[in-house]
Amino acid sequence: MFKLNTKLIVSASVVTVAALLTAGCMESGAKPASAHVATASDIAGGVIYPIVDGKTGPYRVNEKAMSMKLNNGRVPTANELKAWDKDVMPDGTGLPEGEGSVEDGEAIYEAQCLSCHGDFGSGGGGYPALSKGNAVELQKTLTNNRWRDPDADGPTRVFGSYWPQASTMWWYIKDGMPHPKSKTLTDDETYALTAYMLNINEFEIDGEEVDDEYVLTREKFLKIKMPNEKGFEPNIDGPTALTDVRAYYANPANFGGKKVNPSERCMTNCQEKTAVVTRIENGGISEFHPPMSAVRDLPVEKAKALDMKKVYADNCAMCHDTGVAPTVGDKDGWASFVAKGMDKVYANGINGTEGGMPAKGGSSLSDSDFKKLVDYVINGK
Amino acid sequence: MDNNKSQKDLEVSDRRDFFKKTAALGVSALAGTSLMASGDDDAIMHHVPWGQTWGDPVTKNLYGVPSKYEHNVTRRYTKLLASGNYRASIAVTPIHESEGIITPNGLFFSRSHGGTAHINPHEFRLMIHGLVEKEIVLTLDQLKRYPSVTRTHFIECPANGGQEWRGPQFNSLQFAKGFMASAQWTGVYIKTILADLGIKPEAQWMLAEGSDNSEMGRTVPIDKVLDDAMIVWGQNGEALRPEQGYPARLLLPGWEGNLCVKWLKRLEFASEPWYCKEETSKYTALKPSGKAIQHFYANEVNSTVVSPSPEKPWTDLEDGDVIEIEGLAWSGMGTITGVDISFDGGMNYVEASLKGLVLPKSWTRWSYMHTFKKGEKLILASRAMDDAGYIQPTIDEEVSIMGVESVYHRNAVETWEVTATGEVNHVQLRTPGGVKNV
């Protein structure tokens, strides 16, 4: 194992180099875990290949290029920094003043969010559920694990029961939602939606229930206690964070890793006596697009006509088949829309609506093809 | 270039070929190896149409496309892995058709959290700010002015294999292991930029943020930033594809794919971490204790048999044929040092050979020569080791620590069953209900 020992020496030396750069935040963890095994000296338990004699691992480098003063780019203006530095941290850094009520939040939710996230955040259309009930109670399901009993209830991982910080929700709503037109909500609307999230997850803030009358402000937001705040490891907060992370990944038992001296690895009788061949049940998952094939025959020429059923399934079904909007061929459901005139129906479909219909349903159809699709959805043929 | 148009051209020339060939040689010529009554091979005994007519002029396909016969070699998606409208979704790499350790750019697995953004390179800006001595904004040209390095690394979604914690689900290599791909990346080490800017001693974390619809963000520890983290703009000798974050993405060699933030717009340095959505609500691994691992960075040592696989069975082999069993091994923690192969589901192992370039945090090819016995049932398994000292655990070993609810970072030994007829099925060797006393 001469090669491994070389790595051990090399990886110890890089910690010195890096520690100089980071002013001492990496001093721990440099010692090898075992004399038999190469040192895992990067923070995640991996090997570092430092630049030594013009090489890093197998790659040659121009060492002069690594440390030149290049004076590239320009200093951003104060306004530019303000425009882009919009992140929100758990301590409230970046969280603007503002307020919003559960009532307003519910109205915005129903207009802009429900089409994907379902009634009261119940999920649907492939988008995540935002609530499954009382956050404190559901946090207790996180110890559920189906490895003893595959038919048991699994853990419930939604915003209220799982997420460690509320700041994540505010920040993500403001930056990433609603999905088809993100960054269109005001700060107050974001507070209102966050208030609604807290309401449907049955939160209390400072002993007060987030009921239908609740109005969330910045001050109240910073008092939110997430039930699962302490549910994560390793520690990543405070001045010891990097040392803590390094120590965590130095121990394979923490994350399911397995270390072994290569010359002592198991070569015979390596499975548990109780292990059996487990097969795919019920056909497994085989709905692949395009269908799985490794043949090299030329494809049969496809019909030119639009496959309406497929276009509908790919683009429309997640809302129109889940009760959010009238389904295909639902004459009664469509009557009130059709009554406004087909030009209006086409225009709404092509341009999208405030009510949650994405422009062309998110498809890339031409206007004329999209109109044919609208006809299909309304008439069912 | 107009791909649709060239596709049409191909179809037209295709039909022309078909009729010409059919007329000249009869239907039997359509099957590549069919023999005439004499035992002579048509493909040898007759002039082939492409040998007697002009081929395409060089003016055609000025950006080349694969042979029309390779049309089944594509990324694939499945509804199970799609968040509505396929905008927070994944399309996976056909690794059963992959050669060597480089994935063609058009087949590189594609994962986004708000759809593939198409960035105008003239409006690309990268802002680097926070706890640095000098804050800067770069245009794309200015970014590329930094001295570059080129490295071969895989990128793997930590959910690769994550649907199969409770049992095998996919009878397919593409879906069981294809949440990854590999490329030769060109860009700049972030430590090179920081040598220019200066970093403040209290900086412990870097936020990387994308400019896409989801403003995908992740927090990176400074250790990685100062080790081998790169901002890359080149992929296999050309600009990044839009699906890979054109014009620039973060590359953290060996670490979770989602940490390699695409469509990069901002790097901020701070003393405390950010708690982004994709490092809290997702990409955290729940253990039986009820605690979840956050900031789970490195993809652990892993391997798979590529040939045979469910897509590439041994149904055409004859008794006594000598055949190469071939596969991939990879580790986000270092360099592959060895691969063992088992014919009985990971009970007993023999050493396989590594072959080709063996690079850090890279796909590595391995090989074992096997004599096929007609009717013999096998359960093939491969087990890789890396220079960080890690080896792949058995499923029982991994589940005994991680349970079955953690979704991410599953790297236990995986098995293919070869049936008496040479079909290949995905199976797992595991103890029902898990092993005791964990």
In short:
The complex is a heterodimer of chains A (381) and B (438). With 381 residues, chain A is mainly alpha-helical.
Walk me through what this model shows.
With 381 residues, chain A is mainly alpha-helical. Helices cover 34% and strands 6% of the residues of chain A. Chain A folds into three domains: 94 residues, no CATH class; 135 residues, Cytochrome c-like domain (Cytochrome Bc1 Complex, Chain D, domain 2); 72 residues, Cytochrome Bc1 Complex, Chain D, domain 2, CATH 1.10.760.10. In chain A, the strands form three sheets. In chain A, strands 1-2-3 form a three-stranded antiparallel beta sheet, with no helix packed on it. A two-stranded antiparallel ribbon of chain A has the order 4-7. Chain A is globular and about 75 Å long. The N terminus of chain A is likely disordered. Chain B has seven helices and 25 strands. A five-stranded mixed beta sheet of chain B has the order 6-5-14-9-10. The longest helix of chain B has 23 residues. The termini of chain B are far apart. Chains A and B meet through helix 1, helix 2, helix 7, strand 8 and helix 10 of A and helix 1, strand 1, strand 2, strand 6 and helix 5 of B. Strand 9 of chain A pairs antiparallel with strand 25 of chain B, so a sheet runs across the interface.
Q: How far apart lie the N and C ends of chain B?
A: 58 Å
CATH class of the largest domain in chain B: Alpha Beta
Number of domains of chain A: 3
Termini gap of chain A: 70 Å
Helical region count of chain A?
15
Mean pLDDT, all residues of chain B: 92
**Outline of chain B, from the CA principal axes?**
globular
Supply the helix-strand structural class of chain A.
mainly alpha
Morphology call of chain A: globular
When the domains of chain B are counted, the total is 3
- Number of E strands of chain A: 10
> What's the arrangement of strands in the largest beta sheet of chain A?
1-2-3
CATH architecture of the largest domain in chain B: Alpha-Beta Complex
Oligomer: heterodimer
Radius of gyration of chain A over alpha carbons?
A: 28 Å
Quote the beta fraction of chain A: 5-15%
